[in-house]
Amino acid sequence: VLAGDRRAVAQAITVIENGLPGYEELSDEVYRATGRAWRIGVTGPPGAGKSTLVDRLVARFREAGRTTAIVAVDPSSPFTGGALLGDRVRMDDRAGDHGVFFRSLATRGAPGGLAVAAEATADVLDAAGFDVVLTETVGVGQSEIEVASATDTVLVVLVPESGDSVQAMKTGLAEVADVFCVNKADHPEASLVVRALRQAIELRAARDDGWSVPVVQASATMNEGIGNLMDSLYLHAGCAETQRASRRRERLRVRVMRLVESAEREEYWTSGRQRALESALAAGDAAPYGAAAALLAARSDPA
Ligand SMILES: Nc1nc2c(ncn2[C@@H]2O[C@H](COP(=O)(O)OP(=O)(O)OP(=O)(O)O)[C@@H](O)[C@H]2O)c(=O)[nH]1
Ligand SMILES: [Mg+2]
Predict the structure, then answer these.
(1) Residue whose CB lies within 8 A of the most ligand 1 atoms, among 50, 51, 52, 155, for a mutation test
(2) Each residue of 96-143: pLDDT tens digit?
(3) Closest-lying ligand to the alpha carbon of 52?
(4) Does ligand 1 lie within 6 Å of residue 51's CB atom?
(5) Other C-beta atoms lying within 10 Å of the C-beta of residue 79
């Protein structure tokens, strides 16, 4: 992996994705070799044009001589019939270019959850020497948003059709954005959405890191506005440079917490605790809060 061997990289990701024997040691060893890649998370509603946009960004990075890896997480959006078709097109398009690596992940059951598996996958690609690691998720659920936000730069893609951009500002999606892209700028309402978003951003409290979130208008299919988008991403990377270490430390903290929580959850329902649960439920006056309180009170009992 450290030598950038593509087959080794693919195998390592499979081991981590499926929690195969040795995945913890592998993950940790890989982790220690990370820190060089620029990680960009791309998220937004289904069908916003994330994959099309990612393709355009990859092309720009390649032009600039930067090797690029793409991780498509849980490509299950019904909008385009999943990313599968897109993946195949993309693979064909860039076939033979060893500076590009594509991988899709569908790891709902991975140890520690989706975000941990996606981050470990990005670690492998970082350690393998890719300059840029782009992680795409559909920003519908909290866990998808978590995946995208566990990066150096978070790009949130919105479309005029998604209509209420102010609504988007109220979701977790807007909170994690370092850069907004209003895609499908060929749509007549695009500039309205851009203006509404900018106003909403101005109304927010200033960020601790002093970064003011730009809103870029683009059309992925028409390859328009991509240069501006690249400029905003680079600008953020530059500003975030000083924060990078603390952002990474925070990511590690969250990640360790998630691993501990998921291990605890896994181990919680021992046979002893399940018996206690059954007897609490069997009591004639069983009701949810009372039963839960009885179980919690007995929590310290040897299981
Ligand atoms: N008109 C227009 N259509 C676009 C633009 N960008 C993408 N599309 C189209 O929107 C559809 C969805 O594009 P994708 O790139 O697959 O979107 P996505 O956000 O990756 O979709 P999911 O991963 O399924 O959530 C495709 O039919 C694209 O051709 C754009 O700028 N303008
Ligand atoms: Mg997609």
Answers:
(1) 52
(2) 788 999 888 876 666 677 788 899 999 999 999 999 999 998 766 777
(3) 1
(4) yes
(5) 11
